[in-house]
Write a structure and sequence with these properties.
Layout: H1 21-31, H2 36-46, E1 54-58, H3 64-72, E2 75-80, H4 83-92, E3 98-102, E4 115-121, H5 129-142, E5 143-154, H6 160-170, H7 172-175, H8 182-188, E6 192-199, E7 203-209
Parallel strand pairs: 1-2, 1-4, 2-3, 4-5
Antiparallel strand pairs: 5-7, 6-7
The chain binds S-adenosylmethionine.
Length: about 220
C-alpha cells in the first residue's frame, strides 16, 4: 500500500481524494482560526501573482486559494480529483473568473503551456508517492515558459509528542510527510528552484520557475 493518502475518505480513481467536502471546508475555517486569509494571501504573494496571470490551483479542495488567486490574477482554475470537492468549490466560489474541473494532478487534462502560475497547497501528501514525480512533470508541462510554481505542504512538527498527536489525528501521511523532497522533485521535473519559505509553523513552501522568458 502506498503512503501518502491515508487520511480523508478515498475515491477509487484517485486514492488521496477527499469526499467530505463540506466538512473539510468547515474544519479548515476552524483550524485556521481567522488566519486563513493571511496564510493563503501569503501564498498568493509568494507566487507574485499579477493581474494578467492565469493561475492553476492543483488539489484545490473547496477552492479557497483558487478564489483568492482569481481576485488578484486574470483567471484561476482549480482542479481536484474529488467530484464532491469540485461541486462544493463551484457552489462556494462563484466569481466569474474562477472555475473548477475534476482531474488528477498526475494526469491533467489541460493543454501545454496554458498557465502563468501553478499553485498547490496541502495536496502533495495526498498523491501516492509513485505518482508525485508525474504530478510535478504535469505542473511543468501546463506552465508557460517563465511561469512560476508554488507548492505548499504540511510540515510535520519535530517533537515526538506533537508528531504522535498529528499521526493519531491526521494519519501517517501527515506525521511523516517528507516535505524536504519537494524541491529536488521540482528540480528533477525541470524547474529552476527558488526560495523555500516557512509560512506559519506547519506550511513548507517551495517556489520554482519554468526556464524561459515569459511572453
Ligand atoms: C487537504 S486538501 C487541500 C485543499 C486545498 N488545497 C487547501 O489548501 O485547503 C487535499 C486535496 O487534494 C485532493 N487530491 C488528492 N489526490 C489528488 C490527486 N491525485 N489529484 C488532484 N487532487 C487530489 C483532495 O481531493 C483534496 O481536495
Amino acid at each position: 500500500m502506498h503512503r501518502g493518502y491515508q487520511h480523508g475518505k478515498v475515491d477509487d480513481g484517485a486514492p488521496g481524494a477527499i469526499r467530505h467536502a463540506r466538512t473539510y471546508e468547515l474544519l479548515s475555517a476552524i483550524v485556521f482560526t481567522g488566519s486563513r486569509r493571511r496564510i493563503f494571501g501569503r501564498l498568493v504573494d509568494l507566487a507574485e501573482i499579477i493581474v494578467e496571470d492565469e493561475v492553476l490551483d492543483i488539489g484545490c479542495g473547496p477552492g479557497y486559494l483558487t478564489a483568492l488567486a482569481a481576485s488578484t490574477g486574470r483567471r484561476s482554475v482549480g482542479v481536484d480529483a474529488s467530484e464532491q470537492m469540485v461541486t462544493e468549490a463551484r457552489r462556494r466560489r462563484t466569481s466569474a473568473n474562477c472555475s473548477f474541473v475534476l482531474g488528477k494532478a498526475e494526469a491533467l487534462d489541460l493543454p501545454d503551456a496554458s498557465f502563468d502560475v501553478v499553485l498547490s497547497s496541502l495536496a502533495i501528501h495526498h498523491i501516492p508517492e509513485d505518482a508525485r514525480i508525474r504530478a510535478f512533470g504535469e505542473m511543468f508541462r501546463v506552465l508557460r515558459p517563465g511561469g512560476r510554481v508554488l507548492v505548499a505542504d504540511f510540515q510535520p512538527p519535530k517533537g515526538h509528542l506533537a508528531r504522535h498527536l498529528v499521526g493519531a489525528i491526521a494519519g501517517e501521511s501527515m506525521r511523516d510527510n517528507p516535505v524536504e523532497r519537494i524541491a529536488p522533485m521540482l528540480g528533477d521535473a525541470g524547474f529552476d528552484l527558488g526560495a523555500t519559505t516557512r509560512v506559519s509553523w506547519f506550511l513548507h513552501c517551495v517556489r520554482a520557475n519554468k526556464p524561459g522568458d515569459a511572453e
